[in-house]
Amino acid sequence: MRSHPLLTLCVTALIGIIGLIGILNIAFPEGEGGTIWEEQEVAILRTLAIPQNIMEQSYESLTNRYAGVEEAERFGHRLFFDEDLSINRERSCASCHHPEKAFTDGLPTPISEAEPITRNTPTIVGSGLSAWQFWDGRRDSLWSQALESLESMNEHGTPRTLVALRVAEKHKEEYEAVFGTLPDFSDSRRFPPFASPDSGVQDSDVLWAQMSEEDREQVNLVFTNVGKAIGAYEAKLVPARSRFDEYIASLNDQGEVMEGHKSALNQKEIAGLKLFMDEESAQCISCHNGPMLSSFEFKAINAPDGSDEHTDRKDIGRKEGVIKLLAQEFNCKSKFSDATPEMCDELNFVKADGMELEGAFKVPTLRNVALTAPYMHSGVFNNLDEVLQYYNRPMIEKGVHIDVEPLKLVPHQLEQLEAFLMTLNGGIAVEKEWLQAPPMEGVKQNKKYAAETSSINF
Amino acid sequence: MRSGIGLFKGKIFLSAVTLFLASVQFSVSAKGEDSNLEGKEDAVMTFKSESHDLAIEIQGKRHFLALNKIQHWDVEVAQIDGEAFSEVEMVFDGGMPSHGHGMPTTPKVMKQTDSVFVIKGIKFSMPGVWELYFDIKRGDTNVRLTLEIELHYGKKLKILSARFS
């Protein structure tokens, strides 16, 4: 049967109009007060909001019984800004983790006086909610992460025994208020300052091996307690609610902004959020989910890797990180952990092998993302536009596992996504005093932060 | 874990699905107000194959089928009439074939009795379609149950297919 030309024209026009409405609905969803979310979408949105009880989701408290203890947090706060914990007394945690940049440093990769560091400084904000630390997850708590940074030649470079001695010298009272009596480290034959099993300082491992087992245990106890104080402070640094959270709180179950509320997001930002949540299109939510907008799992996106400039091999990320995690002495199942081994589910069932681990890195949080440039594990992208452009056309190579597909979004959709990401800046949910160097009479502190942090304004 | 496959006994069924796919009968139930199994502690999935004379009951514990939560499952293997086998071995694996990766964890199968197992350490790290493989060995007989499930935030579980082979 032949169709009438006028009917064909009408049907075609109708399809066109329906299509146009669909496109406009994504680009310009209904504004304030209208229904723009399905009930199921509202349920998903609520899983992304920062809950009141966010501290209960802390992984740090699993292995660190001092997390949430104010005296430990205050001690950790002082240690975080104390340059005397570094071997040359010139570097503190705050040297790379600047509070006004959401505790990152604004550099592609941090400055190191030893070997070049090939990975970007990650934010500390919300990191206590992750089971894994560092880009490759080679540590499974903040306190354990801090211990590596204290001894690493690329960071503080301080041998283990020297950490204990410096704490005994400068922080005895604070230490004992939290952890009890410090051992007597005054006999330098028993406690040689440069003794450490893992510092990289020449002969430190020989000196460590010469110490009695009992003395090594005493040093290890103080060393791990220092890590736990720093971990307690860092775990306190959770993101504050942003405009995005205000927007979710303003929605009723039917996806409407409730009466008496003003939409905290504009139409462009809402369109970006729609794309962010669309599992068929941008698919961001597949990996960036939960209140921290991260699954904290390991994914390979084959982002350009600056490590080739410094080494003759590509950064293999989690594949190497998991080996280090299982071998290191301060993981969840170690005797220094406050968890019992059966509580260490993430470690007990960790994936230790598989081609998908190669070149995989921890999915970063998107909270405060506008403050944490440059981006990716190698700090290769200077701004969010470059990040989104990469996701739109990721580098797909034959034989290389990759967990993302090209987004194929048009320019205005990328702008919408970026506009949404900018709504995630809420700062840090602590009082201002925690974001600046504490007063430390007689204790040398990070000079830069004593002067600059008074201007922090999230 | 109950002894025998006492299907749904003592449970409230407000929603249950029974389907037949290539001689496989499967049922899904959850205690509570709806059939969304995510995070429920008393949810049960049962799969039966007449041709293989096999019934597999999977019972979730904490965080059952939730995304990004490590969970442990009880699995009971029996004959179709509910009689327990004297000796069965089981291997578990899974992944997301469309994404080219396996499970994000290394689940461990622990034998509780001759035909009752607990699989510890299962995790679903992202939404989408997951395939799960239960390899059952009885003497010289090997049977694989392949489950294809779809998980999404805030949505009900979809069992796309269940195949015995």
Your description of this structure?
The complex is a heterodimer of chains A (458) and B (165). With 458 residues, chain A is an all-alpha fold. Chain A has 2 domains: 24-54 and 242-424, Cytochrome c-like domain (Cytochrome Bc1 Complex, Chain D, domain 2), CATH 1.10.760; 62-239 and 443-455, Orthogonal Bundle (Cytochrome Bc1 Complex, Chain D, domain 2). Chain A contains 16 helices and 2 strands. In chain A, strands 1-2 form a two-stranded antiparallel sheet. In chain A, helix 14 (384-392) crosses helix 15 (411-421). The model of chain A is unreliable at 19-33 and 449-458 (pLDDT under 50). Chain B has one domain (17-164): Immunoglobulin-like, CATH 2.60.40. Mean pLDDT of chain B is 81; it is low at 1-22. Chain B is mostly beta strands and 165 residues long. Chain B contains no helices and 12 strands. In chain B, the strands form 2 sheets. Chain B has a 7-stranded antiparallel β-sheet, with no helix packed on it. In chain B, strands 7-6-10-11-12 form a 5-stranded antiparallel β-sheet, with no helix packed on it. Chain B has strands spanning 17-21, 24-29, 44-49, 54-60, 71-78, 89-96, 101-102, 108-111, 116-122, 128-138, 141-151, 158-164. Classes of the chains: A mainly alpha (458), B mainly beta (165). The interface between A and B is medium-sized, with 25 and 24 residues.
